[in-house]
Design a protein that fits this description.
Layout: H1 2-10, H2 20-63, H3 101-112, H4 122-136, H5 140-150, H6 184-208, H7 211-231, H8 238-245, H9 248-254, H10 263-280, H11 289-298, H12 300-307, H13 311-314, H14 325-329, H15 332-336, H16 340-354, H17 358-368
Helix pairs in contact: 3-9, 4-10, 4-17, 5-11, 5-16, 5-17, 6-7, 6-8, 6-9, 6-10, 11-12, 11-16
């Protein structure tokens, strides 16, 4: 269905109607933009090439257990683009809407015959999440503060990026869903990589259940195994998983996050992946919530590069060292808080504020009920 919709959007009939004047204006603005970007890239290209080279060298040093020093980072801030914004082609195809919860549910039912067991109320999901997160070794501070940062401190289990607040005209901006804002690609990747753990966990619950509950879990397990098989139909690669995640079956898999049995497992595992990554590299002390969020923001490799850095270096190393040029330019928070110390401090500040909201307090209370 998604493929058909994309074809329709790309058809000439779906193209926006633009007047000759609009097209002429667009071309003039595009020429100005291209000229400004070309001038900017004379400075930006060598800077970002240096960032990339030093990052590769750091990763190589870390693999051979050599000390990382300030000299292993680019210590100047990147050049700033101050020219005109790229204009929008008035004759181009309109951008399609981002799939939302109703789409995930529809595709789950159509593709897998799956209807998630959604909780009777928000507290039930929070309790389920707290049980899973605690058993997995996450601390209440990590779980609550990351939830506060990712889900605004009041987000429900089905909160989606762009729809956090009940505002007229609000639209989804990504497929990021739930307490820890998993993209549909995250869900596909977790099934591909952690499918065995998910299956074994569900089997353990089946062994403890009886009657209708046992039968429901057995049915859910059979569906989960089909979803895992689909997620593993390509090699373990983010780009390939992203392609699967945009199909009807991939979008249907994302509905697992809404299930009170499986959703907390997926949301927890998203954080555990980063915790395990740090431990495997000899990072002994517990990650703070802000450090855990850095690994979520920039990827585990870049995030670990940041969190393993002593405080004195954090004050001096620009955040640009942990991004690509495109990623940095599209991240105003990293640009505004342009050293590691500033970015961590800004993250902690948001976590402090949002952790005081009712949703975060309820989640903290759920940890206390264990």
């Amino acid at each position: 269905m998604i493929i058909c919709a994309l074809i329709a959007l790309l058809s000439p009939a779906a193209a926006q109607t633009a007047t000759p004047e609009q097209i002429a204006d667009y071309r003039a603005k595009l020429a100005d933009y291209n000229a400004a970007r070309a001038q900017y890239q004379l400075l930006a290209t060598p800077y970002w090439a240096q960032v990339k080279a030093k990052r590769a060298a750091r990763f190589a040093k870390r693999r051979t257990h050599h000390e990382i020093t300030l000299e292993d980072y680019v210590l100047t801030q990147p050049p700033e683009y101050t020219g005109p914004k790229k204009p929008i082609d008035p004759s181009g195809p309109p951008k399609g809407p981002v799939p939302v919860v109703s789409d995930f549910l529809r595709h789950a039912a159509a593709q897998f015959g799956f209807v998630p067991d959604q909780p009777a109320n928000e507290i039930d999901f929070k309790r389920a999440y707290a049980r899973v997160a605690s058993a997995a070794g996450l601390t209440p501070d990590q779980a609550v503060r990351v939830y506060a940062f990712e889900a605004t401190g009041n987000g429900k289990y089905d909160v989606q990026a762009g729809l956090e607040f009940d505002k007229p005209g609000a639209i989804a901006i990504t497929t990021a869903l739930g307490y820890n804002q998993l993209l549909s690609t995250n869900t596909v990747e977790l099934l591909a990589e952690q499918g065995r753990w998910l299956v074994e966990t569900l089997k353990a619950r089946i062994a403890e259940a009886s009657g209708a509950r046992k039968a429901a879990l057995e049915k859910k397990l059979a569906i989960l195994e089909k979803m895992i098989a689909f997620s593993r139909s390509v090699r373990d690669d983010w780009t390939l998983h992203e392609q699967l995640a945009g199909t009807p079956r991939g979008l249907g898999i994302h509905a697992l996050n809404l299930d009170v049995d499986i959703g907390p497992l997926l949301q927890t595992q998203k954080l555990l992946t980063s915790v395990a990554f740090a431990r495997q590299r000899g990072y002994a002390r517990p990650l703070t919530a802000a450090e855990l969020e850095m690994m979520n923001l920039t990827g585990d490799g870049n995030g670990f590069d940041m969190v393993s850095m002593p405080q004195a270096m954090r004050e001096k190393v620009p955040t640009s060292n942990f991004f690509t040029q495109s990623g940095y330019e599209h991240n105003p928070v990293a640009r505004r808080n342009n050293t590691v110390a500033k970015l961590l401090a800004a993250t902690d500040m948001v976590m402090d504020r949002e952790s005081a909201l009712p949703g975060a307090r309820d989640l903290a209370a759920a940890f206390g009920e264990r």
